[in-house]
Amino acid sequence: MNKMISLEKAKKILDDFSREFLMASQKVESVSLWEAGGRALAVDIIAHEDAPAFNRSHVDGYALLSADTCAAAANNPVTLKIIDTIAAGPNSRKRLLPGTAMKIFTGAPLPLEADCIIKMEETGEIIADYGPAVLIKRSVSVGESISVKGEDILAGDSLFGRGTVISPIHMEILATLGIDPVSVFARPRIGVFSTGNELVDVHEEQLQFGQLRASNLYALAEIIRQAGGIPVNLGLVRDRIDHVVQVYEKAFRLKFPIVISTGGTAFGDFDVIKDAMEKTSSVRLFNKVAMRPGAPIVASVWDNQLLIGLSGNPGGAIVAMLMIIYPIISRLAGGNKHLLPGRGKLTLPVVREGSLRGLFWGRCDERDGRLYVTPLQNQFCGAIENQINSNCLIEIPAGKVNLMENDCVDYWKFP
């Protein structure tokens, strides 16, 4: 079980497990439309009414009868009596007769008798003996400038499916159709904690020599949020097996589908995660993944609860979390988020010799229709400044590598 496995195999193991066991814990809830943005739909959305629900104007102009304009020309305008003005909202109660027109504004309901609209800027308004009138200087076609009932959405249309992450445009459509509340997948509660005698809370103002603030905890929590989950802080845990076991037991009672830790996954005297997992009688899935950073990732299952142990190094923890765990949490939340694969040209040469596949912090940019990737300078897994300037991970093959500028490499774009 100490054998290192490939990144692809680790992802497949967790993917298979999530489909077989974790999805059984997936829950659905009803939320107000106001709070539904960014959530994954738990049902297909079918339109139950037309949009627009009535014929309406999509310009400011004049509603009229096209037959009245057949002989209209710039040198022979037709004069129509203006009998009403219609704004967005209630329809006119007056009847449009031959020889008459109604001033109408964008979004206003079309009078029942009208069959066309001419834009206001194409006309001229005058005061005739009988009152206000409009000069029509060309013939107007039937249906011109009218947005017909159901033109945008027809009742019965299948709009978007289960699993769709609700964007601003989806919100617009749901609100237009009056769909509120909305059935969405519940955001899974994911337990997360850090191990290490050297760790202190982020609010600690004066660090003692050798102490570190628990920064990984906050980075992993935000990845959980972006995946669609709710991170639950299980705290800072000393490097003692019994302390870690207590946290696992608490998480088990709370019925978290996934529990994630950072630190204590290597092979030193203070690396206690594996031993703590064994104390819970969990079943080990794998111990190590062939990638750098992030190789010391441990996965076990305790009665269908997934226990994940990540490296204590910031780079290693974040890379493993994004590459392997992020998609699993997203699926639990009803989504399908993952790092997007791509291929681009190197802007710098890369010389490397390593036994594991490398995932370099880098930047992906498009120039003149082509994708370029730039590895950042400091690739030490404990460095954090590079992460600020990165928008992708650049994949470098294992072994002796001598890549030149403009060589093509694979990359993974951050969400």
Question: How would you characterize this protein structure?
Answer:
The protein has helices at 7-20, 168-176, 215-227, 241-253, 273-279, 314-332, 385-389, and strands at 28-31, 45-46, 56-57, 61-64, 78-86, 100-104, 116-119, 123-128, 131-136, 146-147, 158-160, 182-185, 189-195, 199-200, 212-213, 230-237, 258-262, 283-286, 291-292, 298-302, 305-310, 340-346, 350-354, 357-367, 370-375, 392-396, 399-403, 408-413. The chain has 415 residues and is an alpha/beta fold. The strands form eight sheets. It has a six-stranded mixed beta sheet, with no helix packed on it. It has a six-stranded mixed beta sheet with strand order 16-13-17-21-20-18, with helices on both faces. Strands 22-25-24-26-28 form a five-stranded mixed β-barrel. A hairpin with a 2-residue loop joins strand 20 (298-302) and strand 21. The longest helix has 19 residues, at 314-332.
Overall pLDDT level: 93
CA-based gyration radius: 32 Å
Biggest beta sheet attributes = 6 strands, mixed
Strand order of the largest sheet: 7-4-6-5-9-8
Shape: elongated
- Sheet-strand content, in percent, reads 25-35%
The residue ranges in which pLDDT falls below 50 over 5 or more consecutive positions are none
Distance between the termini: 32 Å
Structural class: alpha/beta
Fraction of residues in H or I helices: 10-25%
> What's the number of helices?
7
Number of DSSP strands? 28
